[in-house]
Amino acid sequence: NKEMPQFIIRYVTLLTATLVISSSIVHAFVSPATTVLERTTKNYSISAGLVSPTTNARPKPTPLFMSDVSNVIDGKLSISLGKPLGLILEENDGSNPAFGSGGVIVTQVNEGGSAFDSQYASQLIQSKIYTVMGKDVSALSFDEVMDEIIGAPSPLDVEFALCASAVAELTGKGVKSYEDGAKVSITVQQPDKPDIVIDGRVGDNLRKTLLANDVEVYRGLKKKLGNCGGGGQCGFCAVELTDEEGVWGERSDYEAKKIGKNGSENARLACLNDITGPATVRTL
What we know:
Layout: H1 6-16, E1 18-21, E2 27-31, E3 34-37, E4 44-47, E5 50-53, E6 62-63, E7 72-73, E8 76-81, E9 87-91, E10 104-109, H2 114-117, H3 121-124, E11 128-132, E12 135-136, H4 142-151, E13 156-161, H5 164-171, E14 183-189, E15 196-201, H6 206-212, H7 221-226, E16 238-242, H8 253-259, E17 267-269, E18 279-283
């Protein structure tokens, strides 16, 4: 028998070798200040590049209250999760004004973690971790929140602050809806001017309402002379919109492309948005 070439032997060995790691942390960084929560005190087996628990199945996630609706109190969901959680977290960038600053946001729920196995997987996306084992972590740094999660037992009790749409989905309430023609208050913030509150009517165009109340939507000669008159083409009527009640919905992909880098994720084209409820609008 001829001897098998060494490079084939090494290749087969690489594919079949199994390395058992005893560690308190399996930590995969996705991007700066972004972590996949696969941290656990149990052994893991790595075979052919795949990571899987070598211990018994993790406990199923359980709510901390008796019924689904009662889990959500003041926009927060309390749930008990076993490790690994299977959450991808990012540092809170403050893009959701309701969440304030500090803490971490759930950007993804990965299959294989206890959060994915829970009935709340979809609602946890874009939520903020509020408490871990009863400790308020909402204002802590990314690393501090991670330390609290690593040091907690399994399962651990976690409270998530949900976005408005998730609250509405779970409870069937929480997001108000306003009838067409209902009068609502629009707070307007303008550079170098005091804030004002104007009346708006649900169903009326936001741009027309702002202009009718002498709000300077188009600042600067370029915008004054070059705007498209509300046709959704120029992008000059972009405003920052804060929707604390979650009634304005998501902005369209078209708006996002038109606004580009000229505004945050909260920026909207006033000409393409009809008033759906109270809001705070800041002109750009």
